[in-house]
Amino acid sequence: MRRILGIVLGLLLIGGVLYVVAFQGKGHPETTATKTVRGVIGSEKSEFFRDPDVVKTLAAKGYTVKTETSGSWAMDQLALKEFDFAFPSSSEPAKEVAAAAGLKGAQETKPFFSPLVVIARPGAARVLADNSLARMTGKNSGTLLMGPYLKAAGEDRTWQQLPGSAAHAELTGTVFIKTTDPASSNSGALFLAATSNVANGNTVVADEAGIARTAPLMRKLISVQGALEPSTDDPFRAFISGSGEPLILVYESQVASLLMQHQDPGDMVVLYPDTTVNSAHTFVPLTEQAKELGSLLATDPKLRELAVLRGFRPQEGVAEFTAATAPHTAYLNTGLTGIRQVGTPTVKILMALAQRAKGQGDTP
What is the pTM (predicted TM-score) of this model? Predict the structure, then answer.
């Protein structure tokens, strides 16, 4: 009797195992993930990696991805041995991360990029346009004219000094764009790269003389802001909720994602600076576990599609982005018409500019 009972229990156990295997193999692609990788990313990519469709697609390719956020320019100061990859918002901090991790010839990948834009309240945008600091191209879109804007900033112009501002009670004090901390955050650093270029006679700052020429203006642009944010996420969310400053520097991807996720943009006007530095999000594999993930993000059709839906422009993916954002051209300059893209200073020069802008340091 015991022998028969043992045989029956054994058959039941085998049957249960076979059922579980069969059940997991049908309709549950997330169980196919074979590798769990941990990465540090810029906050603007958090929603992309949290997207259930992205999670599902990565799992089908064999990856479970866990992320933490950090300012891009602060990533090289982290305990990088705890991560399988770093994903800063541009190539410059990626180089610093690779160096800090002791990697030579790291297979960096740039899956997508995003221009910087300034989001504005309608009243602020209209006053800027009426005073030739911006040019409106529609009710919710326009171009920030960097030369005139920087001239006004250098003169410490206030909103009250701009004709037409009296009709908008919220426009008071010095005119400035709220940015992130340029010493640790990519968007803040690239803002200095673009503005210093304009202030340096439309030339990339390349030496101490260029730093000396542009540092006083960079200092004005940053010091007027008070406390600096570590990432664009909080200022962007504050703006959407109806609070925050009237002019805020963010990534185009944040605006495009909001629109394509059918969320209410409120009374937002999107101003594209006429001189800018595009932010090429750069994937740096730190371990063998994540070595292929960067190229997968760049080349897999489904992941490219999902990146676009989160507002990012795939490399060599103009048509993809244009098609996906066609319903939102009232806000977005999909062809980047009239925008001059400039190069960035070296890491050493850019960080020297950031320190000077914050009132610290004297030499590059």
Answer: 0.86
Q: State mean pLDDT over 30-49.
A: 84
Q: Is residue 87 within a helix (H) or strand (E), and if so which, with residue range? A: strand 85-87
Whole-number Å distance between alpha carbons of 274 and 239: 22
Distance set, CA 247 to CA 25, 117, 181, 272 (Å): 51, 10, 16, 12
Ordered DSSP codes for 34-77: -EEEEEEE-GGGHHHHH-HHHHHHHHHTTEEEEEEE--GGGGGG
For residue 93, what are its two tokens?
């901090």
Which string of DSSP letters, residue by residue, matches 187-226? HHHHHHHHHHHHHTTSS---SHHHHHHHHHHHHHHHHTT-
Q: What angle do CA 280, 180, 228 make, to 5 degrees?
A: 160
The type of residue at 248 is I
User: Two tokens at 314?
Assistant: 């795939």
Q: What is the pLDDT of residue 33?
A: 56
d(CA 206, CA 187): 20
Distance CA 198, CA 62 (A): 46
Q: How far apart are CA 245 and CA 264, in angstroms?
A: 19
State mean pLDDT over 81-85.
Answer: 96
Q: What is the pLDDT of residue 234?
A: 87
Which token pair is 236? Answer: 């962007």
Residues composing the chain: 364
Short-list 33, 322, 360, CA closest to 184: 360
Find out whether 128 and 134 touch, Cβ atoms under 8 Å. Answer: yes
Tracing tokens 């703006």 back to the chain, one arrives at: 239
| 157-205 pLDDT tens trace | 999 999 999 999 999 999 999 999 999 999 999 999 999 999 999 999 9
* Cβ-contact 180, 249 below 8 angstroms: yes
Average pLDDT estimate for 295-310: 95
Q: Report the first-to-last Cα separation within the chain, whole angstroms.
A: 87
pLDDT of residue 48: 96
What span, in angstroms and rounded, lies between the C-alpha atoms of 345 and 354? 11
Describe the strand order of the beta sheet including 35-41 as a list of residue ranges: 63-69, 35-41, 85-87, 279-285, 109-114, 313-314
Flag whether pLDDT at 39 surpasses 70: yes
